[in-house]
Every structure is written in structure tokens, then in C-alpha cells.
Amino acid sequence: MLKKVGILLASILIVSALWLTGLEVVYARVLAFSTNVVLDIGGRESNITVERDTGTDLFRVHRTVDGRGSTYPQELQTIFYPTIIIIAWQVFLAFVFGWKQFIRSGKWNIGIFFLCHVIFLLLLTAYHSSETARFFYEMLIESFYVIAIVLIITDNIRNPGMFINTGSQKV
């Protein structure tokens, strides 16, 4: 068990270091691209870019309503820190249960989390034009940690021997 905790802490430190050295911006650009693809399908009144403003990385929403353009920002860190938790958890699973479990769990966990981020950015583009979008945006902005914890708990339920030695583990 102590070895598993050490692997979990090491994966958190490694993912955090990678995240702070540029992985966050790469993820943000992929997320902005994916959101813009969805916005293109629905008609392009808005788009999202990733920018650096006074040393802070942020999403910038560009909207055109009735021929007038407007922009507004959303900082990356406030919504992306739980992503570190999910990625570090997946790295942990790769070392403890092997690559097969990593891929099986990762496609769900990372996919669900990515989808939540896309929905969040879609709500952000409608923030100033819809009270419903504003409500769900404000609800979701504080929920990413909860979503991450629920995904991790779900993995623990599916794999009951994760931190309790059942004699059927590799580590």
C-alpha cells in the first residue's frame, strides 16, 4: 500500500510539473479547437482563443451580436487544476494495474472530463446572452473538482483492491 501511495504522489508531482511547463496551454488549445468545431456546426456567432494577458493564460471569447463584436476572458487555472488530478490518476492506474486498465479507464475518465470542459466553454460563449447558460456555467465552474473525485471514486468501486491488498495485484 505504501508503494501505491508513493506512485500516486510521484504521478501527481510529475503531471503537475508537466502541466505548469506547458501541457496546460496545449490542453487549452485542443479544448478551444474542439469547442470552435462545435460552434461552427451550430453557426458561428462566437469563437474561443487561448491568449496570454499580463502573464496569465486565458480563454478569450469573441462574440458578434447584431454586427457588434465583444470579447471577454476566462482564466485557465480556475477550471484546469482538476484536470491534473484526472491525468495523474490515470498515470497511477497505468503503473498499478497496467496499460490495459489505463486505456479502459482513461477513455472514460478523460473523455467525460474533456466533454465537461467543452460544455463549460459552450456555456461561456452564451454567458452574456442567456440566463440559463449563465446559471449552468456558474454551477459547473465550481464542480470540476467534484466531477474528478466522482470519477476516481468510480474507479475505486470498479477496482476494489486498489488500496486494499486482495492478493490479485501486480504491485
Task: Summarize the model shown.
With about 170 residues, the chain is an alpha+beta fold. Helix content is about 65%, strand content about 15%. The chain has helices spanning about 1-40, 75-95, 100-125, 130-140, 145-160, and strands at about 45-55, 55-65, 70-75.
Characterization of the model:
The chain is of the alpha+beta class and 171 residues long. It has helices spanning 2-41, 77-97, 99-125, 131-141, 144-158, and strands spanning 46-53, 56-65, 68-75. The protein has one domain (2-42, 78-158). It is built from 5 helices and 3 strands, in the order H-E-E-E-H-H-H-H. Strand 2 (56-65) and strand 3 form a beta hairpin. The longest helix has 40 residues, at 2-41. The protein is elongated and about 65 Å long. It starts with a helix and ends in a 13-residue tail after the last helix.
